[in-house]
UniProtKB/TrEMBL annotation:
The keyword GTP-binding does not apply. InterPro entries: Aminotrans_3, Aminotrans_3_PPA_site, PyrdxlP-dep_Trfase, PyrdxlP-dep_Trfase_major, PyrdxlP-dep_Trfase_small. This is Pyridoxal phosphate-dependent transferase. It is found in: Mitochondrion. Keywords: Aminotransferase, Pyridoxal phosphate, Transferase. GO terms for cellular component: mitochondrion. The lineage of its organism: Eukaryota, Viridiplantae, Chlorophyta, Chloropicophyceae, Chloropicales. The keyword Membrane does not apply. One of its GO terms (biological process) is biotin biosynthetic process. It comes from the Eukaryota.
């Protein structure tokens, strides 16, 4: 059976060689070390277990998404009841289901205080971002400005991997090897990372103003009448958790308003409480025209995403679609009954718990405790907001040069964490932590203890390989 072949590869340590049947996402198919994958079999709250029964504290909530942890009986019951009642019907051609109507009206209520009046349902973040780009194009055609096609995104952004989302993502890994990516209607502006790219003597506000000027220069160069939308994550996530510098969102938003450019907030990670507010846009007081949500929307119990649409766009689309008779877009599984039942129960739970307030209360413990790691001689910056945090390693704090270990430093630390029963993520030189939204004080204490222990072995490994690196 699967479990015996799963444990065969490495003497029963809960690992298996990957890339045999499934081409594994974001995994190097040729590197020997990357071929060993941990095989997880079960989960309980914020813990998961591998094939050997080893227990891990999940420090990344799956993929920043499993907000309520595993085994939530209410969600399981809601899914089960819906499967029994009506497993599938679509929402096409003037037909719908009671559960899709109930859930989408609740989603609109969820975003109404930020201008949301309508939803368009998808199965995840990438296809919801595709939808938002189509909505933006449709909008401009509808109001008689069909020359507006270009989307401005940011370097290091992650918006997913469909061809549209890949194009908007600002990461080389996603474009490399695919020829025509990114598609020609995308432009990328700078990552707003003050610690890394701020000039000597430049304040955060001055840096933000410089980035707003850069955005304006791109708009003017391209021609304002060619720009459809600007897309951004309120806090950059997969790019290495980069909260905006002071003044950034105010300056950027005033440029977007000046040139009448639609603002798409990719809130796939930040919506539903991760920053301590219902929406990340609320945390930064930005007013997007379109929102992309997914992940915590279903606490990852089911594939689910949506475009949340504000009045300005919704009205124009309605008028435009009247010309064609229909709105020509829709996924078989958009508004899936089981997804909607799960999403609805998640929303009920979030509202009852006021999960965003829990996050807000726990944020100082999480952020301030780990901020202390900046005293480590090889830690350049600890940054984050809410339940998103990154630790960036450097060989030299002044020049911010990278540590030249054969295995990148954050990967060394992530591997040690894994040995010590803590799942976190490495992007090479940056370690990313994004716990479930239900983390208790005890969960955080356990995370800190495991991280500290892992850092001790990290020191041993790194200084052994590169003894010349700075020490305490
Ligand atoms: N947008 C952001 C900000 C994300 O972090 C992700 C996934 O990590 C996506 C979009 C893509 O979502 P999905 O993987 O559900 O397609």
């Amino acid at each position: 059976g699967f479990s015996s072949s799963a444990t065969a590869g490495r003497g029963g340590q809960g690992v298996v060689n990957v890339l045999t049947s499934n081409l594994a996402p974001f995994t190097n198919p040729s590197e020997k070390d990357n071929r060993a994958a941990v095989v997880l079999t079960r989960g309980e709250g914020v813990y998961v277990y591998d094939t050997d029964g080893k227990k891990y504290l999940d420090g990344l909530a799956g993929l920043w998404s499993n907000a309520l942890g595993n085994g939530n009986e209410r969600i399981i019951e809601a899914a089960h009841a819906q499967l029994k009642r009506l497993a599938y019907q679509h929402t096409f051609w003037n037909r719908t289901t009671d559960i899709a109507e109930e859930y989408t009206s609740r989603l609109v209520d969820f975003g109404r205080h930020r201008g949301v009046v309508q939803t368009f349902m998808s199965c995840g973040g990438s296809d919801a971002n595709d939808t938002n780009v189509k909505l933006a194009w449709y909008y401009w055609n509808a109001i008689g400005q069909p020359s507006r096609k270009t989307v401005i995104a940011r370097k290091q952004a992650y918006h997913g991997v469909t061809i549209t989302a890949s194009s908007m993502s600002g990461m080389e890994t996603i474009h490399k090897g695919y020829g025509p990516l990114p598609l020609p209607w995308v432009r990328h502006v700078s990552t707003p990372h003050y610690w890394k790219y701020g000039l000597p003597g430049e304040s955060e506000e001055e840096y933000s103003a410089r980035l707003a000027k850069e955005l304006e220069a791109v708009i003017v160069r391209e021609g304002p009448d060619t720009i459809a939308a600007f897309i951004a994550e309120p806090v950059m996530g997969a790019g290495g958790v980069i909260p905006p510098p002071r003044g950034y969102w105010g300056s950027i938003q005033s440029i977007l308003r000046k040139y009448d450019i639609l603002f798409i907030a990719d809130e796939v990670v930040t919506a539903f409480g991760r920053l301590g507010e219902r929406l990340g846009s609320e945390f930064y007081d930005i007013q997007p025209d379109l929102y992309t949500v997914a992940k915590a929307m279903s606490s990852s119990y089911y594939p689910l995403g949506a475009a949340l649409i504000t009045e300005k766009v919704a009205d124009a689309i309605k008028n435009q679609a009247n010309k064609f008779g229909v709105f020509g877009h829709g996924y078989t599984y958009g508004g899936h009954p089981v997804a909607c039942a799960i999403g609805l129960e998640c929303l009920n739970i979030y509202e009852e718990m006021q999960i965003w307030d829990h996050v807000k209360r726990m944020t100082p413990t999480f952020q301030l405790t780990l901020k202390q790691l900046e005293t480590h001689p090889l830690v350049g910056e600890v940054r984050g907001e809410g339940f998103m945090l990154a630790i960036e390693f450097v060989a030299d704090k002044a020049s911010k040069s990278q540590i030249g270990t054969k295995v990148p430093p954050a990967t060394i630390l992530a591997n040690e964490c894994m040995k010590n029963g803590l799942l976190v993520r490495s992007t090479g030189h940056v370690l990313v932590i994004a716990p479930s939204l239900v983390y208790t004080m005890e969960n955080f204490q356990e995370m800190f203890t495991k991280l500290k222990k892992s850092l001790d072995s990290f020191d041993e490994i790194v200084y052994k390989e590169l003894p010349e690196l700075p020490r305490d």
